[in-house]
Specification:
219 residues, mainly alpha, globular, disordered N terminus
């Protein structure tokens, strides 16, 4: 009888059951994200805004105008526009625009703008910028196995010598962060829907890097 009731409950709330299955497949390790409903934690460890976050992001008032300005500065930048950091800045701008259009008011828009701005300003000034992905308040880690693939590709010296392999890698990282934001908001099915594009970008990056390796061997 319990099995029948469970099956019936899933049939009556198919989305909820599908979301639960998606949550399991995402490999989430953050205990606060795994709790929903009345038992959900809402403290700073679970992603509540703290003074440091407010000091960093509260100044971003007009996100539409800020994104337009960042886009213009990125497009006007001289030099190679197909490298890792240029692509990553663009993907962060796209992520912020998508979240803004979805009326996402949880802070991810500001965080995405912050990442795009940090990279863009560093490129403009010619100052070093880290390729590491930051820990963001509104992002939880999903699919650790895909992050391992990301790090494996990034560590391959062929990627450094092969600019064409860099944009899909950079965008896969941002897309995985977006999926992590979906999961942070308990939108587990939405997070999972992003994964095919992440996987395709990683596959493309790895294949291009391998082609570059093969070309160097035969040169």
């Amino acid at each position: 009888m319990k099995l029948q009731l469970a099956t019936l409950a899933c049939a009556l709330a198919l989305t909820g059951c599908a979301d639960h299955v998606a949550r399991e497949r995402l490999g989430i390790e953050d205990a606060s994200v795994l709790k929903t409903g009345f038992g959900a934690i809402q403290d700073e460890a679970a992603g509540a805004a703290n003074p440091q976050w407010v000091d960093t992001y509260a100044s971003i008032k007009n996100s539409r105008a800020t994104l337009a300005l960042l886009q213009a500065r990125l497009e006007q930048m001289p030099g190679d526009k197909t490298n890792y950091f240029h692509a990553k800045a663009q993907c962060w701008i796209d992520a912020a625009r998508e979240a803004r259009a979805a009326h996402d008011d949880w802070g991810f828009v500001e965080e995405a703008i912050g990442q795009a701005a940090m990279i863009t300003l560093s490129l403009e000034r010619g100052t070093p910028v880290s390729a590491a992905n930051p820990a963001l308040r509104t992002v939880s880690t999903v699919r650790p196995d895909l992050w391992e693939i990301v790090n494996t590709i990034k560590a391959d010296s062929a990627v450094v010598r092969c600019p064409q392999a860099q944009p899909p890698l950079a965008c896969a990282e941002v897309e995985l962060m977006q999926a992590g934001h979906d999961a942070w908001m308990r939108g587990f099915s939405n997070a999972e829907k992003r994964l095919p594009e992440v996987q395709q970008n990683l596959r493309t990056s790895a294949e291009i890097a391998q082609q570059c390796k093969d070309a160097l061997r035969t040169a």
